Each structure stands twice: as C-alpha cells, then as structure tokens.
Amino acid sequence: MNNNKTKYCRILNSNKIYMVEKISNKKIYLRYENTVITTDIGNIEFVPENEVTKKKSTYSITLETPEIPNEIMLRHKLKETAIAELDKYIDQAVLNNLGRVRIIHGKHGGVLREAVHEYLASHPYVKDFSIADYSEGGLGVTVAILGKNVKTQNTKIK
Q1: Rounded-to-10 torsion of CA 134, 122, 126, 132
Q2: pLDDT tens for residues 81-137?
Q3: Alpha-carbon torsion 44, 50, 51, 56, what sign?
Q4: Would you say residue 98 lies in a domain?
Q5: Within this chain, do residues 44 and 85 fall inside the same structural domain, yes or no?
Q6: In a shared domain, residues 124 and 78
Q7: Which are the contacts of 8, defined by CB distance < 8 A and separation ≥ 6?
Q8: Does the residue 57 lie in any domain?
C-alpha cells in the first residue's frame, strides 16, 4: 500500500491532501499547513506526488497609518529641520487621504515661508498651494492641496 516514496495522502471521503509526517504501528501522523493530526492508517489513501498541486499562498497587508492633524507647526525651526519634518508630514497626510493641510511657518523674515513654498512647488503630491486667508493666519500660514500632481513635462523619447 505505502512505498517509502509516498509523501502525501488524503483521508477517505475528503479532498484535503495531507503530508505524511510519520507512520507508527497502525497510526499515521498527517500535516496540513500548521496542524498535525493522527488517524488510523485504514482511513487514508495515498496520493502520488505528481498528482499533488502546490497551493500558492496569498497574503494581504493592511497598513495602519496613524491619524494626523490637518496642520503642522514649523515656526522657529531651522530651515533644514522644518523641511525634513514637512516632508515626513506630507507623506503621512497623503497616506491619510488629507486633501488640504495648513503649514504654519510664521511671518518673521519670510525665509522659512520661501523654503516651504520651494519644497511644495516640487512635491509630486502637492496639487496647489497658497498663502492662507487672513482668518487662517495670512502670511504666516500656507495652505496646500494634496493629491497626485498632474504636471506634465515635455520629454522626447529617442
């Protein structure tokens, strides 16, 4: 009934194919995925290896993104630090499907505002940006609209 080359079997009246782990006395130990079961050897039929089809595993991944506020405070930060924080914030905002964010950079000097605007102008997920209305902070705040930017470039394929 069983030759030493047979590694697979099925329990009678079942379609599930098991891998033979061990045969001891009249008991057989069978593995299916991470489960080992024991049954009488008379309850199984051996399946030739060439009839066994390997089941492909499927995986699904759920990315959990932390909820983030719709604004970021960059006032009083060095330009390099502020842009690094803004870069990370924009990525998180896009992952959280925020369509509109406020970037608080302050009014003093305008250096940080200019750096923020330069960064936003080149970001692929910033559709548009502008200085906020007076009621939202005016010159000290920039409002950015997020989404896939559809700016096109004229490129020639050679």
Answers
A1: 0
A2: 999 999 999 988 988 889 999 999 998 878 999 999 999 999 999 999 999 999 999
A3: positive
A4: yes
A5: no
A6: yes
A7: 17, 18, 19, 20, 46, 47, 48, 49, 52
A8: no
Are 57 and 45 in contact, with CB atoms under 8 Å apart?
A: no
- On average, the pLDDT of the chain sits at 82
Do 75 and 115 belong together in one domain?
Answer: yes
Please state the domain count of the chain: 2
Q: How long, in residues, is the chain? A: 158
C-alpha to C-alpha distance for 114 and 101, rounded to whole angstroms: 17
Which domain, by its residues, includes 77? 71-146
- In this structure, the answer to whether residues 40 and 91 fall within a common structural domain is no
CA 86 to each of CA 43, 95, 109, 147: distance values in angstroms, whole numbers, following the listed order: 65, 14, 19, 16
15 inside domain: yes
CA angle 72, 135, 125 (to 5 degrees): 40
CA-to-CA dists, residue 10 to 20, 34, 37, 39, 154, angstroms: 10, 16, 12, 11, 62
